[in-house]
Amino acid sequence: MTYLPKPKMHHPDLPKNALGFTRRDYEGPISTLCAGCGHDSISAAIIRACFELDLPPHRIAKMSGIGCSSKTPSYFLGNSHGFNSVHGRMPSVLTGANLANRELLYLGVSGDGDSASIGFGQFSHSIRRGVNMTYIVENNGVYGLTKGQFSATADRGAKNKRGVANMDEAIDMIGIAIQLGATYVARSFSGDKGQLVPLIKGAMQHNGAAFIDCISPCVAFNNHDGSTKSFDYVREHNEAVNFLDVIVGRDEITVDYEPGTTEIVRQHNGSLLKLRKLANDYDVTDRVAAMNFLETRKARGEIVTGLLYVDADAEDMHGYMETHDKPFNAMTDAELVPGAAALAKLNASLR
Amino acid sequence: MSPQDASQAVGAPGSTVAPIVAPIVAVNDFVVKFANVNGSGSASANQLFAKAILRMGIPVTPRNIFPSNIQGLPTWYEMRISDKGHMGARLGTDLMVAMNPQTWDEDVKSIRPGGYLFYDNTKPMPASKFRTDITVVGMPLTSFTNAAYSVPRERQLFKNIIYVGALSALINIDPTVIEGLLADQFKGRDKLIAANHKALHMGRDYALAHLPCPLGLTLVPSDKVGDRIFIDGNAAAALGALYGGATVCAWYPITPSSSLAEAFISYCARYRTDKETGKKRYGIIQAEDELSSIGMVIGAAWNGARAFTATSGPGISLMSEFIGLAYFAEIPAVIFDVQRSGPSTGMPTRTQQSDIAICAYASHGDTKHPLLIPEDPHECFVFGAAAMDLADRLQTPVFVMLDLEIGMNERLTAPLTWDDNRRMDRGKVMTSEELQAGRVFGRYLDVDGDAISYRTYPGTHPSKGSFFTRGTSRDEFARYTEAGDAYQRNMERLLKKWNTAKTLMPPAIRTDAGTLTKYGVIFYGSTSPAIPEAAELLAQQTGVVLDQLRIRAFPFGPEVEKFIDAHETVFVVEQNRDAQMRSLLINELEANPKKLVRVLHYNGEPITAEFIAQAIAAHTNPTPVREAAE
């Protein structure tokens, strides 16, 4: 793998967003993943979401662990700081970074091996803490970089490329995320950009732990017959419960929906989640019902996608901890050091 | 008196049995040891006793000896009282306060001939349980306390105060000093103060009426404490981190380091909470494990906050992969390692200096890390704050190497001071203005010749200065590469940065014998208080004098090499089995191994001056038998 910058030249009429950036300003160097990899589609969706949300690229921190998915932050948001940490440990690094400066947007990109196998603990605990982040798992059920071993999200009975079946029960990261208190939970498919982009936008506008499980077929090792994470299989079993449209605060809000088929959820920062319902009996704000619905549909072999749960008024870790509004990394000596007089007083109490 | 007589006498209220050996007579120079049961509330009574002696102006050094247990197992609180100021541990007990039947035999055995035993003689004990060469002082503590109190919890707590009262009469502690301490402790709770005063005087009056007050061991007011304060190393280190500007602490509970993080929590609540809004200028996370705690520290420091973790050996093992990342990606981090006896779970509540090697070279691949090694709580504070500056300046993990002996025992130490003109040294951080002005930014570019590169905090500038941090190889501009020459250039620069580190670490402190000697001694950390006393003993017993060098940091400065070169034989005193510091001296300075003589103490108990003196004496003056054998 080498570092290949993309040519700077681009069409003069490329559309610009409110900050004057084109989509190209959110791109990174050329991807070195396999041609047709689902992960590249997710990178493209992230780029589009950031462009459409008018986010200043340098105010985003992109964090990852180790693996194919964790490489992708190199290939988008070239003007953002990135941190490719150690295997399975992105959540702790992201948590620390978030503590240090609450004003940036934290995007965690991970894979199923990184987050469900080696990093299952860190995934779980970062969700429990309500870290304000968009946590995307690019889920293909296999280890790509080490050539196709099963990960912990591979379904029991799913076959690898050589026809050997996986014997272990799969970890359903969506179910775990809802159970552990994630306040924005979605599942999508890298092959459905129309669904994925708004889900990422909604997550980025969410205050709290937002988790997206994005099934992303591995064209090299998990796209064959007998796989439950192949393009064909996911397309056949995909059952979307809703279709999301994200309206950010400054857009004029026009309500033009038929009651009963569309639901509007207003998030903490003023953004609106406009949900066109595809499954009439699904309520995205009911956590227990969501878990029940997901388990029922899973038993039928359906892969439920869409926005699955949201708590629009969620608190984040800083809220729970009551930390100061000013980022820690900008605090001065005067704000942090109690000084000589306080120390003298303390000395006196220790005699 | 025959043993038969003794068995009758010791069961009687307020009894004393005179020894066959002359009782020890000492003023302001003896060891008192309390044998208690864990969880019986004795710790605060014992601390009260120690503080009373300090307020009389007499130096006292207490040590908690405790099991890995919450309730029921034996604990000891040992106090060395020394007007001379010797603070190292000393073998043998002069006055044993035996409150734990479980450890009776061992406790009685540890008393020096001519010493004293104070015990609860409510239940008669057979004469075989006593020694004839000590003074036995019995007091019916349980029956006495039970007669005065009916609530079980009161009985337990006031029994402790009652024995403090009795002891105050036995060794001449001024009761008004204890009263003053109780008043400080229970400020505003007058009923509690009165109740404690009552118990104190009940014990004291009983002793004055029935026991041979005073014993041969007595205290007289002195002036040897000065302005020193009494604090444990973990609390002092936490204060150092606070004054050093740490805003993020991520930790996982582990003995003996937990109280460091807990002290940081309470100091932050006191000093870093906005009075009007209640908002906190700190973030502390008790993580799910040590991997996560160091990950959080690295994430926070990468993002420009000062961050630390506190742990012990097992935690360091778990953190090793992340430490390698921070070394290679050049991210500041501060790790307080409060060492305990290893390997594995080892003896979790006993002291050792056995993480020196793992911390110096933690992680796979070629890595080296700066260590700061404090000798006492004062230095824990100084190094705690200095570590924050050093980590930022060197952009690398910095370890502060405490141990249980320093961390968990209150120690008389110089008062903590702070210069209000001091400012945090954030190291090389390129600002938005500098980037805007067109300064070239290469994250791993050595522009100043000291091998330390500039970094930027995320979010600094809209279009300049962003970079990708990774544990994989990259070039000077943080671009991924597997080119061997670029990798090697980077590794060479890291080595050059190590040389820069040598100029920033606190130098070793040398104390010469005053006369020319071929013998030197190198030591560090909690061994420190035993060294002056060991040197004194050695000189008295053998005439051998020692030049002393206290190592305070790794990498070593030139003074360490110079010291080794200047002596024919250098004793390296350590509290581990494998002579880990000696290995570092040989490895890093190419010191001649034959010159460096190991003096090793690693049974989990603090090292004593006697041990050191004996070990050195055996080497400098071998016995004829040994000479013959050689």
Quick overview:
The complex is a heterodimer of chains A (351) and B (630). Chain A is α/β, with parallel strands linked by helices and 351 residues long. Chain A contains 12 helices and 13 strands.
Structure description:
The complex is a heterodimer of chains A (351) and B (630). With 351 residues, chain A is α/β, with parallel strands linked by helices. Chain A has one domain: Rossmann fold. Helix content of chain A is 29%, strand content 19%. Chain A has twelve helices and 13 strands. In chain A, helix 1 packs across helix 7 and helix 3 packs parallel to helix 5. The longest helix of chain A is centred in the N-terminal third of the chain and has 15 residues. Chain A is globular. Chain A starts with 37 loop residues before the first helix and ends with a helix. The mean pLDDT of chain A is 93. With 630 residues, chain B is α/β, with parallel strands linked by helices. Chain B folds into four domains: 216 residues, 3-Layer(aba) Sandwich (Pyruvate-ferredoxin Oxidoreductase, domain 3); 182 residues, Thiamin diphosphate (ThDP)-binding fold, Pyr/PP domains (Rossmann fold, 3-Layer(aba) Sandwich); 66 residues, no CATH class; 121 residues, Rossmann fold (3-Layer(aba) Sandwich). Helix content of chain B is 39%, strand content 19%. Chain B contains 21 helices and 24 strands. A seven-stranded mixed sheet of chain B has the order 1-8-7-6-3-5-4, sandwiched between helices. A seven-stranded mixed sheet of chain B has the order 12-11-13-14-16-15-22, sandwiched between helices. In chain B, strands 19-21-20-23-24 form a five-stranded mixed sheet, with helices on both faces. In chain B, helix 17 links the parallel strand 20 and strand 21. Chain B is globular, with a radius of gyration of 28 Å. Chains A and B meet through strand 2, helix 3, helix 5, helix 11 and helix 12 of A and strand 10, helix 8, helix 10, helix 11 and strand 18 of B. Strand 2 of chain A pairs parallel with strand 18 of chain B.
